[in-house]
Amino acid sequence: MRAVAARVTEASVTVDGEIVGAIDEPGLLVLLGVHTDDTEAQAETMARKLHELRLLRDEQSCATADAPLLVVSQFTLYGDTRKGRRPSWTAAARPEHAERLVDAVVARLGKRGARVATGRFGAAMEVHSVNDGPFTVLVEA
Fold it and tell me: Which parts of the chain register pLDDT below 70?
């Protein structure tokens, strides 16, 4: 499982002109990709890392700062561009598998007490964010 976590001051996801998920205070925008081999164990680890990694200002985590997360599924994180001019998506999980594990990460974040907003799986989403820093890291589980 792979995530791109960006520290933001605000972020939102719009589908068909409607905001479906948003955070309006400092937190993390998380683009989350699922690999074909990922399991519930990776979902648990990813939720813990996203919640506890000290990525916010003053070395705070979302857990210590009670900061929100906006989680957006992003199968393209497993695009392979090593050959040719067209990415290969063979490492990205099939939609039914990926959706289940994205939902598992979100559920585990919620069980940890995190405030979580989401995009809409499989939809054409417009993601808006105001980066803080910018400060962006790759998180793998």
Answer: none
Active-site annotation holds for 75: yes
Could you tell me the pTM of the whole model? 0.96
Options 45, 74, 90, 135, the catalytic residue:
74
Rounded (10°) angle between helices 40-52 and 95-111: 40
Can 74 be counted among the known catalytic residues? yes
